[in-house]
Amino acid sequence: MLALKNRSLGTGGALGVVLGVALGVALGGIVGLLATAAWADAGPATIPASALSSVKELQKRALAGSGAYEVVESLTTQVGPRLPGTPNDAAAVAWAVKAMKDMGLQDVHTEAVPMPGWRRGLERASIVAPMPQPVAVAALGASVGTGPEGIEAEVVRFASLADLKAAPAGALTGKIAYIALPMARTQDGSGYGEAVAMRLAGPAAAAKKGAVAVIIRSVGTDAHRTPHTGMTRYEEGVAKIPAGAISTIDAGQLDRLLEHGPVKMKLVLDVGPLDPITTYSVVGDLKGTEKPDEIVVMGAHLDSWDLGTGAIDDGAGVAIALASAKLIKGLPEKPKRTLRVVLFAAEEEGTYGAAAYGKAHAAEAAHYVLGTEADLGIGPVWQFKLKSNANAEGAIAAMAAALKPLRIVQGADGEGESSDLGPMAEAGMPVAELSLDATTYFDIHHTADDTLDRIDRPTIDQSTAAYASVLWLAMQASGTFRAPGGAK
Question: Against a cut of 0.90, is the pTM above it?
Fold first, then answer.
């Protein structure tokens, strides 16, 4: 799932960034002074020539075969989909622990993440009038169920979430609300932010107007009959109604039918909440030799939705993270700082893993040098971005120059996007964004088509080369990337 801090408010699987950022704000108040004190006299970040020389070898090895493809193949084949609370989720945690230990990471451990449980079951939709025909549908995460008999009601179309919210009170009593907003295709994934709002806020908005259920046009850019799932949310004090996404193809058919008159639909969603569960994030370190207490963070999320096998979302990110660590470990030059790989739990369902990690590690927030995460598919990486300041500008320029052989441009100054790193970013950790090309990502995002055959070896090798390069240079740098005086 994508979880972009700014683009998908309301994300990245993305609604949980609200939770993560809220926690991060609280943590920032507690640890901000500690972070400032720790880095006040560190001086500007400076990257030594030896590190710049080693990064060329790192990129050469990655482009020749980073090993990332094999990681995704193993995860998606031996484990498959990884919905929290399922046997596959437990298998994924065990898989990740073994993978980290096998590659020689240290202090490999799991961290508990409590969260609500949810199950998916039978999902079926059909138009019953004016002429019967099937509709491809998937329940949204956290949706309540319809009951075994389902719901049969007239469909009322809205072009956008704003139009639904503007409907008169009671206008949808006994009816199914349908939000038909298409998602725009963009390289940076920015089209997701507008479209995902209907997935997140649609059920509550529809319930306030009296609707008995809500369906949305899938938040995706494809033209396939594969619906896109993803998290939704309910509001306190507002009735919870069943929520589903129909494929973009079926949305087009429904639009045409509605132009000719009323349409009645039957919706059966055998889904619903379960008792609270506990899942686990997996953490491992590649210890620095000179400054082991200073930490560079590489994040990805281990969980996935259950329709496909979670190859691009976020098996690719897991693979980039593990393959980068292995490449760095294999360099002749030894790392000065510690690289921490965190495979977060439950990003898709609300960044519960990020919140739990932020809370558990608040006391060490001052030790975070830099962080980045991979959660937008396989790439390639096309842009590098890190918020500049007097301490960081020289190192940023050096990093950007080191990435040019990979055909990566330096983006406009600004904070790097993050989801699982949200709490750490709010506590003062600089976040580097390595922009993965999202042009086709949302064709298969959160669908049954998210499978291994979508992984392209050369592309994920280039992405791994980029991530490994930035991680390595941050590990070898002296000084701080944080603004003088602790300003963000």
Answer: yes
